[in-house]
C-alpha cells in the first residue's frame, strides 16, 4: 500500500508562551494527532536538515538572511514579524524551509507529500512579516527551478490572508504562477499582485467558497502546465479562527482540501502541501483542523 510522505521536525515548535497570538504548540500537537490517527499508520515520516544560507538567498536578500542566522534582526523588522528572532526561531525557520524543499522533492517522486510546517507567505525578499521569517515556498520553487528539477511551478494559496510575500518575490518570473484566494479585508492591508488574486468578502460560507474554488482551479492552469504545485492549506478560513474573516466549517475545509488534491492528482501534477495559518487559543482545536488536510492528502497517494 502506498504511504503518504510527511515531513516533520520537532524543532518546528519554537516553544512560545501559550498566550502568544501565534499558537506555536500546534506543530507538536498536530504531529501527535497524526501519529495516533489512521493517516499516521498510512504515512512515512521524513526529517529535514536546516536550509543553508545559499538556499535562503535565492528568495531573500543575503543581508536579511545573515541577520536571521546570527539572530540579529533589527527590532522594527522583528515587530513586523511578530516575535523576536532568537536561536529557536532562526532554527525553526531554516528547518521549515528545508521541509518544504523536501516535501517538494518527495512529491515529484511519488505524486504527493506534506510538510507539517511551512506556508510562511508574508516573508518578503528584504524581510519577514506577519509571523513569517523565511518564505519557504518561494525558496523551494526557486531552488527547484535553478536545479532544473522543474520547469514551471504553480503556487495555490488558500490561506485566509493574501500570499503577498510570495507574490512579491516571484513577480516577473514567468516560470512561477502565484494564485491566492483570500479574505479581501484581512491582513495585509497593502496587498501585492499575484498572477491570479481572488478577494472574498467577509463571512463567506462553505457553498459559495467551494463554488468559487471550482471556478478557480481550472483557471490556475489555463495556458500554464506546472510540473509541481505548492498548496498552502491554511485552515484560517475556518469560522472559529481568531484571525480569519471567513466562515468555513470543518466540512468546508475538508471538501476544499479534497478538491485541490483531486484536481491536480487527476491531471498527474505532483502536489506539495504546506501547513499555512490557523489561529486559536485552543491548540488542540486548531491542530485538529490541520489534521484534516493530511487525512485528505492520504486519499490521493
Detailed description of the structure:
The radius of gyration is 17 Å and the shape is globular. It has helices spanning 26-35, 38-41, 53-56, 62-69, 75-81, 87-110, 136-146, 164-170, 206-220, 250-266, 283-298, and strands at residues 4-7, 43-46, 112-115, 153-157, 176-183, 196-200, 228-232, 271-274. The chain is of the alpha/beta class and 301 residues long. It is built from 11 helices and 8 strands. It is 41% helix and 13% strand. An 8-stranded parallel β-sheet has the order 2-1-3-8-7-4-5-6, sandwiched between helices. The relative contact order is 0.16. It has one domain: Arginase, Chain A (3-Layer(aba) Sandwich).
Q: TL;DR of this structure?
A:
This protein has 301 residues and is an alpha/beta fold.
Look up the CATH topology. Answer: Arginase, Chain A
Number of domains: 1
**Silhouette:** globular
Give the biggest beta sheet. Answer: 8 strands, parallel
Task: Name the poorly predicted regions.
Answer: none
> What is the number of E strands?
8
| Name of the CATH first level | Alpha Beta
- Classification by helices and strands: alpha/beta
Query: What value does the Rg take, in angstroms?
Result: 17 Å
| CATH architecture label | 3-Layer(aba) Sandwich
Mean pLDDT figure: 98
Our count of helices gives 11
Q: CATH superfamily assignment?
A: Histone deacetylase domain
State the separation between the terminal residues, measured CA to CA. Answer: 9 Å
Strand order of the largest sheet: 2-1-3-8-7-4-5-6
Order of helices and strands: EHHEHHHHEHEHEEHEHEH
Query: Strand-residue fraction?
Result: 5-15%
How much helical structure, as a percent, in the residues? 40-55%
InterPro entries: HDAC_classIV, HDACs, His_deacetylse_dom, His_deacetylse_dom_sf, Ureohydrolase_dom_sf
Protein name: Histone deacetylase
Domain Histone deacetylase: 20-285
Pfam family, one: Hist_deacetyl
